[in-house]
Amino acid sequence: MTVPEPPVFGLLNVNKPSGPTSHDIVARVRRGTHIKKIGHAGTLDPLATGVLVLCLGPATRLAEYVMGSPKTYRARVHFGIETTTYDAEGEVTAQDDTPVTREQVEAALSAFRGDIAQIPPMYSAIQQDGRRLYDLARAGQEVEREPRPVTIERLDLLAWEPPYADLEVVCSPGTYIRSLAYDLGRAVGVGAHLAALERAASGSFTVADAVTWPDLDAAMAAGTWREWLLPPERAVAHLPAVLLDADAVQLVRNGVRIEADGARGLARGLDADGHLVAVLEGRGSAWKPHKVFSV
Q1: In CA terms, which of 60, 133, 214, 264 is 20 to 30 Å from 27?
Q2: What Å distances lie between residue 30 and 13, 23, 27, 126, 133, CA to CA?
Q3: What order of strands is seen across the sheet that includes strand 241-243?
Q4: Which of 24, 45, 183, 271 is catalytic?
Q5: Please, what's the b/e burial string for 63-73 (b: 16 or more CB within 10 A of its CB; e: otherwise)?
Q6: Alpha helices, DSSP H only, in 112-170?
Q7: How high is the pLDDT of residue 3?
Q8: pLDDT, tens only, 144-189
Q9: Domain locations in the chain as residue ranges
Q10: Distance CA 282, CA 182 (A)
Q11: 195 has a pLDDT exceeding 90
Q12: Nearest Cα to Cα of residue 210 among 17, 7, 45
């Protein structure tokens, strides 16, 4: 008698290759795992590589916590050429062969550290007046975009190989590295675009620990892909832990508040085995079930 596989409730940290969209990767994993309910925690452009966290089964409800975490990127910026998309996939709109020095680049970086206002690129999924900006851009329209507040915690020049600068960026979610490259080129005075991008980390998920696409593809074909499945608790590892005994677990799963002094903010409710039971919301004198998982 065949023992059925347990329900899937977990995460996959995939090192996305350059070429496919994030949606392409999700579609391929749906086919390879035969799981319909899969989402990703933060889009990567087709050109980009690196950490793409997939949320499987009920873990799709945890995507927002991964998406809301700080990101680390390694970006290659090409000075002297601007494009329609602000990256290497777009059409060239301006070119300036004026030599740029390392000192000029380093001096320009300081203005982009800390809390800044960033104008998103036209080729982005942001909606304006009910339409995606990239749809307007493909129709040949350019509209005014409202600056968006972002935080760049760290911005370091790793290497300078004219006309290319390799940067490491630690930033808040919602930061457009393509816009950063474009704005940096304008600050230097010759224009620039994003030539390559790797998301090195999304919260606690790093590219060093990610499964490569060839390895995951082979594991799905062999039926061994669950070896790469991460526990859902990883999505909320940054939240404080609240340990729940058996009675409290039952109460939480029934939607009942758990009395506790000084309950504040969000927390991860864990059972005796360390498995995620719920995301809890503190209300001063009690933890209220915010998102409950019964798997």
Answers
A1: 133
A2: 15, 11, 5, 26, 28
A3: 241-243, 266-270, 276-282, 284-292, 258-263
A4: 45
A5: bebbbebbbbb
A6: 133-138
A7: 47
A8: 778 899 999 999 999 999 999 999 999 999 999 999 999 999 999 9
A9: 10-69+204-234, 71-202, 239-292
A10: 42
A11: yes
A12: 17
Give SS3 for 5: coil
The verdict on whether 247 is a catalytic residue reads: no
Q: Are 254 and 244 in contact (CB under 8 A)?
A: no
Residue type, position 164, single letter: Y
Q: Residue 80 is encoded by which pair of tokens? A: 């002297």
Residue 154 tokens read as: 């760290």
Query: Is residue 157 within 8 Å of residue 169, measured between CB atoms?
Result: no
Q: What would the CATH number be for the domain defined by 239-292?
A: 2.30.130.10
Residue type, 222: A
Q: Which amino acid is at 32?
A: G
Q: What average pLDDT does range 213-230 have in this prediction?
A: 97
The CATH architecture to which 10-69+204-234 belongs is 2-Layer Sandwich (3.30)
The identity of residue 221, as a single letter, is A
CATH class of 71-202: alpha beta
